[in-house]
Amino acid sequence: MPFKQRLDKMSPPPSSAASPDFLPYGRQLIEEDDIAAVVAALRSDWLTTGPRVGEFEAAVCAFTGVQYGVAVSSGTAALHAAMYALGIGPGDEVIVPAMTFAATANCVVYQGGTPVFADVEPDTLLIDPMDVARRITAKTRAIIAVDYAGQPCDYYALRDLAQSHGLALVADACHSLGGSYKGKRVGTLADLTVFSFHPVKHITTGEGGMVVTDNPELAARMRRFRNHGIDTDHRQREASGTWAYQMVGLGYNYRLTDLQAALGTNQLAKLPGWLEKRRVLAAIYDAALAKVAAVRSIVVRPNNEHAYHLYVVRLVDRDMRGRIFAGLRQHSIGANVHYLPVHLHPYYREVFHTVPGLCPNAEAAYDCILTLPLHQGMDEADVDRVVHVLKQELVA
Length: 396
What we know:
Blueprint: H1 3-7, E1 23-24, H2 32-42, H3 51-64, E2 68-72, H4 75-85, E3 93-97, H5 103-110, E4 114-118, H6 129-135, E5 140-146, H7 155-165, E6 168-172, E7 180-181, E8 184-185, E9 192-196, E10 209-213, H8 216-225, H9 234-240, H10 258-268, H11 271-289, E11 295-297, E12 304-305, E13 311-315, H12 321-330, E14 333-334, H13 346-351, H14 360-366, E15 369-372, H15 380-394
Parallel strand pairs: 1-14, 3-4, 3-5, 5-6, 6-9
Antiparallel strand pairs: 2-10, 7-8, 7-12, 9-10, 11-13, 13-15
């Protein structure tokens, strides 16, 4: 069946808000085959540390073109595992973009390191390699790039910087599963790539995340880290007929269950179609909003294949943002804002003494950006509705 016809065949998801027609900015799509996969896992011998976790890791590796995958309990746990694997500790600095969710910086702090905030490009809101270069010091150990909204960063420029300074390059690709940069798939662009499977992401495991890499030593470190720092898991000991294990480092219980892995594997098979749908819906937004002078879409580079986790626009008049946000919500449209620059959060201002003006592009963008609904449970009529209400509120 042609994709255009399939759009209207998908049943809309049930509402998660009081209004029956509430349209959230992001939402999981759970179908009967997903439920059946989880039920099969429930009826199996293994609810955790079982075979489905490895199957999910292998499926994500095959999809991204990477050798090793380490599934964990959340995207945040995946970021933490990446910092642990790189040996980040007290006295180390890691450069992160200001325009991201707090977990990108928090994972550095978890390891006792110091996040150093770099500004973003004003048109794409992706980390600016030139600003990264200005913030590298003798203490810098790594760069974390964030594929904001689903668009991959300029990884060639970032790779050159990382290699010339002996730094690790980490891709926070929690928004960009299925994207690509200059023909190279997300997952192959950095030393470590982190994915999230939260319900608003492209596929979900409820909560969950994964780190993919071509480095076997880093993968082995992360596997121990997710299991209390222990060298084997229960299934491995069961297979070898031993009770013995050793804790060789300090780790956490960051394991993903087989129930979650079963859901993730089943959803991953649908990802190509869901990505296509997101791109079709984003193109409809682009075409409709190109005619609205008061709104500007985020720039997409021609060499990028955008994964469209989020559809973000700028309001030309930033003073309108609060009113437009409220107006959309009154019409049961779940607009949102992504994100308050991390260095402006009270914790970072109090503990790391960050101040306004540190990353002016990110700060200026925050004042005017707005996230409009985009997910695979939507159809063209939903986009038309959002655009209609947005135009209505702009002239109110």
